[in-house]
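Same chain as my last thread, 405 residues:
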Amino acid sequence: MITVIESDARLGSRADENGLAAIEGWPVAQCAEDVDALDRLVLVGLADLLARTTDIAAADGSDPQAFADRMSASLEHRWVVERWLNDLLAAGLMEAIGDGRVRLVERPRRKDLTAARDRMIDACVRLGYAASLPTLLLDSLRHAVDLLQGRVNVQSILYPDGDATAALEVYGTNVVSRYLNAAAASVVADLAHSRSAPLRILELGAGVGATSEHILGTLGASSVTHYVFTDLSPHFLHIARERFADEPWAHKMRFATVDITVPIADQLGNSSADRDGYDVVLAATMAHNTVDIDALLREIGVLLAPGGVVVLIETVVEHAQSLTTMPFALSMPDGSGPLARTDVRAGSHRTYLAADEWTAAMVRAGLRPCVDLPRNGHPLEAFSQRLLVAARPDTPTTHAETHDR
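reply #2:
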């Protein structure tokens, strides 16, 4: 039976040290400015797009309710225009002028667009995104109207010709992902070292396997009895099988198609871990995709063996850089807007939970939060991505005990 070894503070400190070691020598001091450059490029690009396709630049403003029609947005994606307008208002690039009308504060000039693009490219290089993320951001802006009209699928922008290079950079090779993946691997390794039996690990929404590679590479084959690699997409499962085929721990891996919006246990089969519980349930940048975080965490609590841990990597703030990709992946075909949530996000267009909302949800699920990184005040906080770890108690927690916390 696994227990969280020593104190939570020491567990978190070691994870932080290992994460920082993975990015030693990396220029992180200006992360905030660089992340802002990615956001700014998309915001300025959207302001320019609206100026070219609507009358938002008119001195007397325009009725935002007409923008989706003027851009011939499909029924599925009409809500995305409202999301763009809200972000432009929040960023101060657009203003409300009364009677429900809005206008651009200043129409972007060609030199403004060029400067934003160049600044974004420089920032991507410093942050470790190389060429693929700038290409993705610029392509998504270039095809923004096609995406709105449903003539281009967002998956073709994210994974051109099925290529996962951009995804690997977003989830594996950039500075914050290196830190978070190394810190997560440190937590799991500490748990492995605290017991004699190998770990039983379940990864949900494993995608291109960037985090899996760090976990398994750190643990080695002898520390894992089996590693269940799951994703909703058979395409990602195929990529992972090929990618890890020659690794020394490949024979410990099992692959399964799992949709986290329906009961997970029913999709996993009947192995010993499926029956007896997992020592680690891992979900990197995907748990927010569920419609109800509380329900998902309760289910994870059931999947965990007593003393097991859930390890999450999650974005905790909505960033403008995803405005030309993420919303299109969430649109419902019936035009009802984004995927409807039944948790703290209900009634909003939010994709992510704040860090304190994750902590509260973990407690409600009977789990004990024990790691939250990066530390407050570190430059990596600018990415708004966090490692969140919680343990299932060795003894069951009653509903009353959970509520009292």
